[in-house]
Every structure is written in C-alpha cells, then in structure tokens.
Fold:
Amino acid sequence: MNFNYFFLTIVVIAFAVYFYYKTKQFRSTLPIRKKWYKAKAGIALGVFIIAFGINAVIIHQSLVSYIICAIFVILGLVQAYNNYLRMRHEGKYVQEEYELNR
Structure:
C-alpha cells in the first residue's frame, strides 16, 4: 500500500471535517455551542497539519523535510490536544445551554 495516498486521504477528510464544523460554528446561535464547534474544528485542523507534515516527508525525503515535518507534527499535536481539552470542557455545558434556551 502506498502511504502517500493514505495520508492524502486523511488530509482531504480532515479539511472537509474542519470546513463542516466551521460552518456549524457560524450557523449556531448559542455561545457555548459556537465554542464547542470551534474546538471540534480545531481538532480537525490539528489532524490536517499532522497528516500534511507526514505526507511531505513521504514525498520529499531530506533533512530539511524531516525538520519541517517535526515542526508540523508538534504544532498539529499541540493544536489537536488543546482543542480536545477545550471540546471536553465545553461539551459538558452544551446540553444545559440548549435546555435553558429552548
């Protein structure tokens, strides 16, 4: 199996998920729900950055590419982890906010 196509598929799916949650964020009217969708979009963006960095190493194998990949993977992990924590925190209040604003 060619890993280039695998990571390219992950890049495309992560971008689609990011776009989906950003659209849901802009269409939402409740403030906590907006933040929750923003955090979910941030996780998808982190996965996108990680997959893009790994795919770049598969295509171009050089020292510079390895350094850039390491930077992308670290930034993607930080982005995904921070937004995961934010999503878990705000997810506790989404149902409560929905019930209050019925």
